[in-house]
Amino acid sequence: MDFEVVIGLEVHVQLNTKTKMFCSCPTSFAERQNKNTCPTCLALPGALPVINEEAVKKAMMFGWAINATINKKSIFNRKNYFYPDLPKGYQISQFEIPIVENGYLYIDKEDGTKRKIGITRAHLEEDAGKNIHETEFSKVDLNRAGTPLLEIVSEPDIRSSEEAVQYLKKLHAIVRYLDISDANMQEGSFRCDANVSIRPKGDDKLYTRVEIKNLNSFRFIQRAIDYEVQRHIEAWEDGIYDDEVVQETRLFDTQKGVTRSMRGKEESADYRYFPDPDLLPLVIPQSFFEETKNIPELPDEKKERFVSEYGIKPYDAALIANSKETAEFFEKMLTFNIDAKNAVTWLTVELAARLNKAGLDITQSPVDAEKLATIVKRIEDKTISGKAAKDVLDYLMEHDITVDEAIEKLGLKQISDASALEPMIDEILAANEDKVAEYKAGKEKLFGFFVGQVMKASRGKADPKLVNELLRKKLS
Ligand code: ADP
Ligand code: MG
Ligand code: ZN
Q1: What is the pTM of this model?
Q2: Most buried among 67, 375, 418, 471, by the most CB within 10 A?
Q3: pLDDT of residue 30
Q4: Which residues contact residue 83 at a Cβ distance below 8 angstroms, ignoring those fewer than 6 apart?
């Protein structure tokens, strides 16, 4: 039987406001434990929450970005559960009426097409603190308690683990462009839970889903989903689907690459949601709508602009536009008047491979946009060959000198002066009279041999195009 994979993602984005969601404690990271706390986020009796205006505006910006409905009136609820890192015994969240509803975004497929993924809702809530487990005892750090989160819930529209990653990358790019979150996955400012189920192809009902919690890298998300899908399919094929696949919360073991049951899935009734009597409904002032609607250029628009303005391929354009830093790097390169297609290759292939190997991201690149553009420029003005340029880039990944210094140092300057090449070519032709005769008699394959000899004699530095030209002239 053929199966279809059904995935819906819940993403928690930590908003980069200066202060917490309902009090004026700073949200800054790496402070002494429990330093950024006050009666409100410590849940001391009598302390009252006040809604953070900046968090509301940031949620609204996200709403505009995904073409959603922004509810002028929304409601904060108490979501009750007991856990040591939750001092109030409930989390303030939104339930029936979230601030943002009914949006969508497009994911970019590898073949250059795109697919629309619905976003059911995005609501504001507060984060919990952190439990730190030591051998003899556990500690609770409430610095993070009350930090604003935007929880973004997708429709079950995602059809593969690749699409899940494409969706997350697009979402990641959007919140980074909007500058509403640093979206740092390692530090937990962009966390994802994946809801996964399968169904026979053609069936449109939804089958039992499991929720995989706290996935903090794109690679783990993909692997966790793949594992889970396989588990469902095998259970189905072995006739034990109903026993094996139950609605529950699972955790991904990154060491073993498997998911494991953590607990049964709680239903919303378990949380006894009710409107928080300490907070009035959130009614957004009209001025906020004016203030937030002029959002910056987003990845999709940027991609379209790259395609029309620079004539690059849609897939490449999406790849670059989906990262704010990469897009800035790319546009900086183009200010040095180089060919856009060359810029794409040297950025997305050559530099990307080297950064990847060194475990660096674009912001940590030892070769900046100006240097990479200069390398391209030196190929375009024929100072160096494309092959030599790779050596220059390798060298610059390790050494902080200019491109021209590196070319000089490595002795890679291309010989593109006919008067320097002609004597070399004459010598080679004279030394291979027999082959010249064969060539002239019709064995055209030999042309490559002559080119190779000249390149060898010049130790790879001859401009191959010029060598071709000169050889043709001399052999005709
Ligand atoms: P909860 O808040 O209890 O986790 P929701 O109804 O808000 O439940 O759904 C959470 C996520 O699960 C959403 O992203 C939704 O698209 C997804 N989802 C719901 N049903 C399924 C299913 N059968 N298979 C995969 N994903 C699903
Ligand atoms: Mg959930
Ligand atoms: Zn506080």
Answers
A1: 0.85
A2: 375
A3: 62
A4: 128
